[in-house]
Amino acid sequence: MKEKTYEKERAFLSPYAKKSYESAGRLRPETPCSMRTDFQRDRDRIIYSKAFLRLKNKTQVFFAPDGDHYMSRLTHTLDVSQIARSLARSLSLNEDLAEAIALGHDLGHTPFGHVGERVLSALNPAGFRHSEQSLRVVDVLEKDGKGLNLTWEVRDGIVNHTKSGRPATLEGAAVSLADRIAYINHDIDDAVRAGFLDPDDLPAEAVKIFGRDTSARINTAILDICAESQGKPYVRMSDEKARALDTLRSFMFEHVYERANKLIQESAERMLRALYAYFSERPETLPVLYRNTAQTNVSLAVCDYLSSMSDRYAINVFKTLFVPREGSV
Prior knowledge:
Hypothetical protein af1432
């Protein structure tokens, strides 16, 4: 079955696509799967990882929203995967590689969204970036410290998925674009649903270019990328659409993200600062997985633990450590 996949890749993929049989390999050699390509195997390892399961209880933008239809970090990840796969399929790129990168790109994200990331970046002397932590999750922390041993191409796409990253494969570039398309457009939906935003407030020029509803905006973006990148050694938007997307992104940061973050900023920051201080002073109380790291780098070990937490788990640990219980002395 794997050889059939290789044959299809040789016959149908773009000369600029990364073929499965061309992978630079894994950190540690291992016996290949007889059925799945290495990229398919990476995708499956990510889906069944603990870090992936925790994404369902991590904030995307709105913390503990009053409704069932807001984005979580998991639904955002699935959204990115769908867009990245659409781009890869249309451009004859390796869909399995794009999917694996997309599913793993936010595994290291903190609880409480970007508020949590900013807090840990301020507390840790070495800083904190969720893209780098996502790579650390798959390399070191998963499987009780053994890591997932993913291919070089998937790891490169994960650590380079942010706007400032420079992924080495076109599949990684597709995921980076898919991430921005996904969070900007569905965050608009969430902001409207939460009463933070009126659709008429969106920048008129960007609306004119992309459309008024989520489906139209995403479809326009995908079609533009495909038209701009078909048969080319790159994946990118046209200049017009890229400027319009940046306009929407800037608008969302100014009118939505900062306002939404303020609602949880104080409480989330207080919790994470208290937890960071507590475990930094008592590294012996960290879970076993993080204690070895704490012997040489306490700050890194504490960041590993705190960033792994879901929103709910972080709140429960905080309550256990700092909130008196009824009947306690």
